[in-house]
Amino acid sequence: MPASSPSEPEADALALIQLSGLVQETFARVADKHELTPVQGRMLCVLARKPYGMAELARVFGVGKANLTGLIDRAESRGLVARSLVPGDRRAIQVLLTDDGRRAARAFHQEVTAELAAYLDPLPSCERAAFRAAATTVAGAAGHCAAWDPATPTPRADPVTGSARP
Fold it and tell me: I want to staple 52 with a disulfide (CB 3.0 to 4.6 A). Which of 57, 117, 130, 152 is the partner?
């Protein structure tokens, strides 16, 4: 009996699974070259945008505070991150990159970006643009913020107007 073609939803799911595996494998390989775990590499890139409180960082990573504490402990012991008090709240702790952490985030991000971008080399420029638009739409519809670029500062809300500011 010949194999039937997958349905459109199955084909869509398979395409997403293939891309996810490719990205995860790339993250793992590049992280290993930088003596990081993939989660540490991602954490450094997230923290490069701004310091995060422990609870907020746990939400970003979808982990419990105990798991996050272990991740932060290991990165802190390597001199990549530091904990500090949140100005104006003596009970809250924020996590921020050290100078070594900033350098590691930049190096990891540049290498991952170059490798991932190279996967799109076979596509003509118009298809690359369509790919980016589709990926942004899919991620946005799923409620996922994929921004992780350490070179791009996160817009902050103006405390008076509430509008975004650099």
Answer: 57
Question: CA 22, CA 16: separation in Å to the nearest integer?
Answer: 10
Q: Where are the domains of the chain?
A: 23-151
- Fold for the domain defined by 23-151: Arc Repressor Mutant, subunit A (1.10.10)
CB 110 within 8 A of CB 148: no
Q: How far apart are the first and last CA of the chain?
A: 61
> Which tokens go with 61?
């990573």
- Does the pLDDT of residue 17 top 80, yes or no? yes
Q: What are phi and psi of 42, to 5 degrees?
A: -65, -45
Q: Model's pTM, two decimal places?
A: 0.78
DSSP-assigned letter for residue 27: H
Output DSSP code: residue 161: T
Yes or no: say if 80 and 100 are a contact pair by the CB < 8 Å rule.
Answer: yes
pLDDT digits (tens, 9 = 90+) for 93-108: 999 999 999 999 999 9
Strand partners, 89: 86
Q: Give me 144's structure tokens.
A: 């996922």
